[in-house]
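User: Watch each token:
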Amino acid sequence: MIDPAVAATCTETGLTEGSHCSVCNKILIAQKVVSSTNHTEVIDPAVAATCTETGLTEGSHCSVCNKILVAQKTVSALNHSFTNYISNDDATCTEDGTKTAKCDRCDVTDTQSDEGSAKGHTSVVDAAVAPTYSSVGLTEGSHCADCGLVFKEQEVIPALVPDTNVDFHLNQTGVLSSHRVDVATGAQKDAPALQAVTSAYTNFSGLTVFHGTLANGERIMTVALIGSDGISKVDITLNVVVNTDVVAGYRLMLVNADGTETELSVGSGNGKSSFALNFANGAQIIHLVPIAE
């Protein structure tokens, strides 16, 4: 009867095939011991730990029986390492900005508040603007150059209002009488407003002519060049033309600063009358003196 062979293992001996008598059990072919084969070691390579994943130490096992010869041990995850933070340049005047670092081992980034990075305000002066006759002005102010916050608001200064009033004297039989008239509107303080002479013209802009009666009953004509800044003083002699009916029956006496009067030469024709005036001293006052019959 056959005694079957027993295969050796890594740790156990085996037996060769033998035989014996099935009746008397006499061993006919003795089985011989076969030595154990021992383990066949293979390396289980180490696995490097990452910032977020655990790793393993190097180990080994038998490739035949899979018995673990050297157990692999778990290596803890390394966690991220952020050491070099760089400002994101996003701070404002009043709020801290942020800073960002890249992990020393991987591409993960970390952003956090950059404490104390608020820049503070940068004050700049808003220069005052002087008003003119055609535009308003502004007081001096200030604001932040970065965020625009107004520290001192500029206030509007009204545009200049030109003074177009003219004071003058009339010499009436040796007695000077004082008068004031607005040569831009014809307004008088103590008498009805003078009337505009719409027919008047000259070859210079801004000509404004009024005529009418003063509070004392005397008649006058005002002639002025009015600009955006009021009465213009221009050293130029202009020929002023009006409808003849405006001056008909009157001598035109130019009123001087001292109250004396100088008669103007008047040319007439085709329903128009003209006279020359110089505007170096501004507005001119003409006393309309009736021509004696």
